[in-house]
Every structure is written in structure tokens, then in C-alpha cells.
Design a protein that fits this description.
This protein is an all-alpha fold. It is built from 4 helices and no strands.
């Protein structure tokens, strides 16, 4: 049995940072609905003029994509929680920002009427 000789690629810190920065830049400007790890890797390969489809480059790209997606999901979940709380407040009669402004305006109007009556 013949074993394939694997070429060991050593990546310096500067190249690794450049790959990560390039992939992050691509992800930030892309639609999360359309971008894939493969597309991000291909675009980064083109921009860097480097074949990122081989290990260890491929693993660096995967790590960056996974981290980006995790952060995006956390941000989306956080926004959903905020909106959920507002919806619950609206349903329970706490009102929205608009109704809070109306209440404040009405309160100020009532106060002005009371002040003019007292004078």
C-alpha cells in the first residue's frame, strides 16, 4: 500500500490574519441568505490570488464563516427578544412608543388646563 505524501503547509500569522480579514469583509458585504462557505472561500481565493480550497486554508475559512454565522444568529436572536418584549407589552396594554407619546401629550395638555384654571 502506498501512502500519499502530504504536503505540510505552514501559514504565518500575517497570512492567516489576511485570510480572516478578507473572508470577514466578504461576509459583511454579502447576503446571509445567499452566501455559503464555498462562495466566501472562492471570492477570498480570487481576491488573495491564493487557492484556499486546500487544508489548512480551507479550515481557516470555515472557522471564520462559522464564527461570523454564530455572531449573526446571536444578534438576530437578541433583536427578536427585544421585539418580542415590545409586542407582549403592546398586547398586554402597556402600549407602544406611539401610544406612550400620546399619553404624555395628553398628560401635558391636562396639566396646562389645570394650571390655567388655577391661575
Amino acid at each position: 500500500m502506498e501512502e500519499e505524501a502530504r504536503e505540510v503547509v505552514v501559514i504565518d500569522k500575517d497570512l492567516k490574519k489576511k485570510i480572516k480579514d478578507t473572508v470577514n469583509k466578504i461576509l459583511k458585504r454579502s447576503s446571509l441568505y445567499q452566501i455559503t462557505e464555498v462562495k466566501a472561500r472562492e471570492e477570498a481565493s480570487d481576491e488573495l490570488d491564493l487557492d484556499l480550497s486546500k487544508d489548512p486554508y480551507k479550515l481557516i475559512v470555515r472557522e471564520v464563516v462559522e464564527r461570523f454565522v454564530e455572531k449573526a444568529v446571536m444578534a438576530i436572536e437578541s433583536e427578536m427578544v427585544k421585539h418580542h418584549a415590545q409586542v407582549v407589552q403592546d398586547v398586554e396594554g402597556g402600549g407602544s412608543e406611539k401610544s406612550a407619546k400620546k399619553k404624555k401629550k395628553k398628560k401635558n395638555k391636562t396639566k396646562k388646563e389645570e394650571d390655567s384654571t388655577a391661575a
